[in-house]
């Protein structure tokens, strides 16, 4: 499998480490009223789609950047690769 | 005062050097290193300060630049700075004074070992070691990649000089991999 890194171009998947569902970027607000429930969901509940899936990959044997990869879990086709920090900043997560 | 003698990463009193075919493999110990990572929102300040330090624009993706002090790209808004150890043993402190709070500076000198390969057609050995397209390199390129399961930086100084930086604690394994590949290729 080849991951088309947004900065470095196509790289072998062996250089990367899978880090889980991209929804992990959206950590709940610990000050909210239902924080305990939301952290339970954040920590334990995952969708398991047959089809497009947004996931985090870490370029460990490369520039150490985190990526959000959109991958079809039935074909392994990768349709989109973004820097996780760009995704997080676009969603107002990075301050 | 203790009277201690420093050892090279390979554990010897003097840096090792060997010739394999027409290629020389040298252990390099006279370079100070420090990493520079721009802090959030201070990326342009870091680039400007780094430019002043190395006398060239802060290197773009997968490039290196500079003269006495050189910087190579290690990741988005991150660089490693190289300088002669004899005159810049306190490189991290010097960079910290220059760049201030715009970036996080970390001393890296003793974290890495470095081996330089000098000779023609070095890609013939490197293509056995890592996934970098070194055959196309002409000087100025750098890539972090896996050599013998070790995260290493491969830098092309010029077409016949390649530097390889790897974790110092695994210097022996990296050296063994380089020697084996050179024997196979040359």
Task: Please characterize this protein's 3D structure.
The complex is a heterodimer of chains A (95) and B (186). Helix content of chain A is 18%, strand content 35%. Chain A contains 2 helices and 6 strands. The longest helix of chain A has 10 residues, at 35-44. Chain B has 2 domains: 17-29 and 110-185, Probable tRNA modification gtpase trme, domain 1 (Gyrase A, domain 2, 2-Layer Sandwich), CATH 3.30.1360; 31-109, Alpha-Beta Plaits. Helix content of chain B is 23%, strand content 37%. Chain B has helices at residues 43-54, 91-99, 123-129, 171-185, and strands at residues 17-20, 23-28, 31-38, 64-66, 70-75, 78-84, 103-107, 112-118, 142-147, 150-158, 161-167. The termini of chain B are far apart. The A-B interface holds A 7-8, 11-12, 14-15, 60-65, 83, 85, 94-95 and B 40, 61-62, 74-76, 131, 144-146, 151.
Question: What is the terminal separation of chain B in angstroms?
Answer: 47 Å
Chain pair sharing the greatest interface: A-B, 16 and 11 residues
List the helices and strands of chain A in order: EEEHEEEH
**Spatial order of the strands in the main sheet of chain A?**
3-4-5-6
Provide the CATH topology of the largest domain in chain B: Gyrase A, domain 2
Total tally of structural domains of chain A = 1
Written as H for each helix and E for each strand, in order along the chain, the element string of chain B is: EEEHEEEHEEHEEEH
Strand order of the largest sheet of chain B: 1-2-8-11-10-9
Averaged pLDDT of chain A? 93
**CATH homologous superfamily heading of the largest domain in chain B:** Probable tRNA modification gtpase trme, domain 1
Q: Give me the CATH architecture of chain A, please.
A: 2-Layer Sandwich
What is the SS-derived class of chain A?
Answer: alpha+beta
Task: Tell me the overall shape of chain A.
Answer: globular
């Amino acid at each position: 499998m080849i991951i088309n890194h947004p900065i470095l171009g196509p790289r072998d998947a062996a250089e990367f480490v899978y880090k889980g569902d991209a929804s992990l970027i959206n950590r709940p607000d610990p000050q909210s009223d239902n924080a305990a429930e939301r952290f339970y969901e954040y920590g334990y509940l995952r969708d398991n789609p047959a089809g497009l899936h947004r996931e985090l990959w870490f370029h460990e044997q490369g520039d150490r950047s985190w990526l959000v990869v959109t991958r079809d879990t039935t074909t392994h086709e990768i349709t989109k690769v973004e820097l996780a920090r760009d995704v997080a900043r676009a969603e107002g997560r990075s301050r | 005062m203790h009277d201690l003698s420093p050892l090279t990463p390979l554990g010897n009193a003097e840096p090792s050097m060997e010739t394999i075919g027409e290629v020389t493999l040298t252990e390099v110990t006279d370079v100070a290193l420090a990493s520079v990572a721009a802090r959030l929102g201070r990326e342009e300040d870091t680039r400007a300060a780094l430019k002043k330090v190395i006398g060239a624009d802060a290197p773009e993706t997968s490039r290196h630049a500079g003269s006495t002090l050189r910087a190579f790209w290690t990741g988005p808004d991150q660089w490693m700075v190289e300088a002669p150890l004899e005159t810049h043993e306190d490189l991290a402190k010097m960079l910290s004074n220059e760049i201030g709070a715009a970036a996080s500076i970390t001393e890296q000198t003793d974290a890495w070992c470095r081996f330089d390969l000098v000779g023609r057609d070095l890609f013939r050995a490197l293509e056995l070691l890592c996934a970098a397209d070194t055959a196309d390199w002409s000087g100025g390129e750098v890539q972090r990649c896996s050599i013998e399961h070790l995260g290493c930086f491969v830098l092309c100084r010029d077409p016949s000089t390649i530097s390889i930086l790897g974790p110092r604690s695994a210097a022996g394994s990296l050296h063994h991999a380089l020697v084996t590949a050179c024997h196979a290729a040359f």
